[in-house]
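Subject: complex prediction, re-run

Hi both,

The earlier run crashed halfway through, so I resubmitted it with identical inputs.
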Amino acid sequence: SQQGEEDPQALSIQEGENATMNCSYKTSINNLQWYRQNSGRGLVHLILIRSNEREKHSGRLRVTLDTSKKSSSLLITASRAADTASYFCASGLSAGNMLTFGGGTRLMVKP
Amino acid sequence: DAGITQSPRHKVTETGTPVTLRCHQTENHRYMYWYRQDPGHGLRLIHYSYGVKDTDKGEVSDGYSVSRSKTEDFLLTLESATSSQTSVYFCAISESTSGGETQYFGPGTRLLVL
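This time it finished cleanly. Structure:
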């Protein structure tokens, strides 16, 4: 079974609005990562937050991590049409440097 | 793209035939992974490798085998393809960063088993 689950499964917003996606996981982790996937393409790494961090920023991305609730959120501010993609969280485990992925959130940003 | 290529990029085959997918990397990474991606399931790990001739099973390894005879190549074989193995297959490598291990993905192989 998957380690992570994401919510919502799909999200549609207008350009300029903020988009928030949530991720929950089941076991202890070393880190939590977020990836983007454009339709028909491979996954692109966006940001990594370590288990001892609570918040991290990268450009228009803000990620939070709450290890007590085993959850993370990804906020995209001032969204653009080019942000339209699927977003996946992945929990990083130490064994085998493995990641376990959630089912993803499909984001559509309307111009 | 971390120097990862996959071949073929698209393949159509018939049930019962063997299929081998190739992942090639140019940057000498130790860890390599094979995932499949299906609607509603996200990415699921099939097998991974932590060095030449060192491999281990992932979440959905049944019906798949792998081999790694050289650092740069990681092969995924479907010994006798079934329709349930129709999927998009992604290869990945793992790279150490300041925060931990980050994975970088190849472009994927679309496999259709008729």
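Chain B has a mean pLDDT of 93.

- K.
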